[in-house]
Each structure stands twice: as structure tokens, then as C-alpha cells.
Write a structure and sequence with these properties.
Elements (H helix, E strand, L loop, with lengths): L13 H12 L12 E6 L5 H12 L3 E6 L11 H11 L2 E5 L3 H10 L4 E3 L7 H15 L5 E5 L4 H13 L2 E5 L8 H13 L4 E4 L2 H5 L2 E6 L11 H7 L7 H4 L7 E4 L11 H4 L6 H20 L1
Parallel strand pairs: 1-2, 1-3, 3-4, 5-6, 5-8, 6-7, 8-9
The structure holds phosphoric acid mono(formamide)ester (CP) and norvaline.
Length: 300
């Protein structure tokens, strides 16, 4: 069964899925292609964009979605993942899950008979990366130039490395020592990038990462689940704030990106995120169009 746990699962299909997302956005796909299909949505963590875009997306495609928070389902009380996977597979046509542990989603996919779509784990956030690259494409019309990611080498960063490599876009990550992206993901991304003639740079020097970039992207310093390290992280990441001074190092026409939610005054200043250079609300809108493409691709 095909599932979307990582950008690696669609590395040769990314362009096609983005084209489909654009067609959905432009209203080129008519009818209700997912009529009578049901999507279970398991949320072990909070969400605004992922939940609403999947729910609205499913509805617009003619299907139905079921929101299952960790407190609502027996898995939250310890029912085995395998039983949950097998039982839900008898009721629904697909399962979207936002999980704490990536390994749990891998197990869910192994045991289920329906497609599993990750809506974020500690390792990756593939649906976010699709919406992000849809946004880059509509801003520039191509994937040329350098994509700079600044801050924590987290789930969002991991998926961005893989998707940039898949699309042949150069990417530089500026992050503190000890907060680099996952080494296995970097290895995989490097292999893909090599095939697509693009490069990946991981550096502690934030200025090197941002210099001449066309896109400057950041995410929170404290991801869901990292709350215990909050104090330490605030200190470590201070030099990695995206502010007007840092943005000056990027291209004149560079855009600012963030997956949201954002904390103004931490990873980004209000001057940057609320400036005309910022495309964060377009990114959030594009979650809906990208989600519809993903749902169509996996559930149709
Ligand atoms: N960017 C993102 O995934 O937002 P939510 O946490 O609100 O779903
Ligand atoms: N890195 C963040 C992304 C939230 C959408 C987190 O995992 O909390």
C-alpha cells in the first residue's frame, strides 16, 4: 500500500503532485473525485492548518473526514497500533496521522491496508514541504537559486532538504552545532541532490547560509515535544533569528517563509514576518491545495 510518511516516498512524483495542486488551486479539476471516501485523522498533537486543510480538502473533494484526537481513541489508552491499523482499515479509505514518534507511523503503515499520510512526526512534515514548494513555484516560476533554512534542523527542515533535492533546488541550512538535520535524511537528500545536479550545505554560519538566497525559511526554536529544553534552546538559537539585518544578506527579491505557528521576537521579528517579503499566509493557504493533491493521489 502506498503511503506518504516521508518525501522519499514520492521523490519521483513531487513535480506531478505539485502540478495537481496547482490545478486544484486554479479550479481546473471538477466534480467530487473522492465522493463516498472516508479519511480518519488521528491527532496526537495540536494543529490548526493541518487539521482544517485536510478536513476542508476532503469535504471539497466530496469525501468525509473523522477527527480523532488522542483522547478520543483507544490508541491513546494503549491499544496496540497494529489493532488500530487493522480495524480502521475496515472502515475508512485512508488514515492521516499527526504523531509524536515517526516509528509509530511506520508501524501503522506496515499494519494498515489503506494509505497512511503523515501530518507531521518528530522526523518529517512532508505535506508542509509540498505546500512550501507550491508557494516557491508560484512566487518565482521555477526552483532556481538557493533556498536558505535557518534555525532548528527539525522535522520541517528534514522534509525541506528532501523536497529541494528532489526538485533540484539548492538548499543551505544554517543551524547551531548539535541541532543539525537528521544525518540519515541528509545522506538520502545528498544522493537525490547529486542526481539532480543541486547542492546541499549544512553550516553553523547563518550568514553563509542566507547570503544571496532567494528564499529564507525558519521555524520555531521549540517544536512540539521539545518544551523541556525551552530555556536552553532560546539561548542556543539567539544568533539564528531572522531579522531585517539578516534578510539584507539574501537577494533583493527574496521571500520569507515559515510553516507557522510562529513566535514573533524569537525565530523571526515582526518586521520580517509581517513585511511584504513574507509569504507565510500564502503558504498556509497552499496547504489546502497541496492536501487535495495528496488526497487525490493516494485515495482516488
Ligand atoms: N504548519 C502546520 O503544520 O500547522 P499546524 O500545526 O497548525 O497544523
Ligand atoms: N517544527 C514544528 C512544526 C509545527 C508545524 C513542530 O514540530 O512543532
Amino acid at each position: 500500500m502506498n503511503s506518504l510518511l516521508s518525501i522519499c516516498d514520492i521523490k519521483d512524483e513531487v513535480s506531478g503532485i505539485l502540478e495537481l495542486a496547482k490545478d486544484f488551486k486554479d479550479g481546473k479539476i471538477e466534480g467530487k473525485p473522492l465522493k463516498d471516501k472516508n479519511l480518519a485523522m488521528i491527532f496526537q498533537k495540536s494543529s490548526t492548518r493541518t487539521r482544517v486543510s485536510f478536513e476542508v480538502g476532503m469535504n471539497q473533494l466530496g469525501g468525509n473526514s473523522l477527527f480523532l484526537s488522542n483522547d478520543d481513541i483507544q490508541m491513546g489508552r494503549g491499544e496496540p497500533i497494529s489493532d488500530t491499523a487493522k480495524v480502521l482499515s475496515r472502515y475508512v479509505d485512508g488514515i492521516m496521522i499527526r504523531a509524536i514518534e515517526h516509528e509509530d507511523v511506520v508501524e501503522l503503515a506496515k499494519e494498515a491496508d489503506v494509505p497512511i499520510i503523515s501530518g507531521l512526526t518528530n522526523l518529517e512534515h512532508p505535506c508542509q514541504a509540498l505546500a512550501d514548494m507550491l508557494t516557491v513555484k508560484e512566487q518565482f516560476g521555477n526552483f532556481e537559486g538557493k533556498f536558505a533554512y535557518v534555525g532548528d534542523g527539525n522535522n520541517v527542515c528534514n522534509s525541506l532538504l528532501l523536497i529541494c533535492a528532489s526538485l533540484g533546488m539548492d538548499i543551505a541550512v544554517g543551524c547551531p552545532k548539535g541541532y543539525e538535520p537528521n544525518p540519515d535524511i541528509v545522506k538520502k537528500a545528498n544522493k537525490i541532490a547529486e542526481r539532480n545536479n543541486s547542492y546541499i550545505i549544512i553550516t553553523e554560519d547563518v550568514e553563509v547560509a542566507v547570503k544571496n538566497a532567494v528564499t529564507v525559511y525558519t521555524d520555531v526554536w521549540v517544536s512540539m515535544g521539545d518544551e523541556k529544553q525551552e530555556g536552553k534552546r532560546r539561548k542556543v538559537f539567539r544568533k539564528y533569528q531572522v531579522n531585517e539585518e539578516l534578510m539584507k544578506l539574501a537577494n533583493k527579491d527574496a521571500i520569507f517563509m515559515h510553516c507557522l505557528p510562529a513566535i514573533r521576537g524569537e525565530e523571526v521579528t515582526a518586521e520580517v514576518i509581517d513585511s511584504p517579503q513574507s509569504v507565510v499566509i500564502d503558504q498556509a493557504e497552499n496547504r489546502l491545495h497541496a492536501q487535495k493533491a495528496v488526497l487525490y493521489h493516494f485515495l482516488k
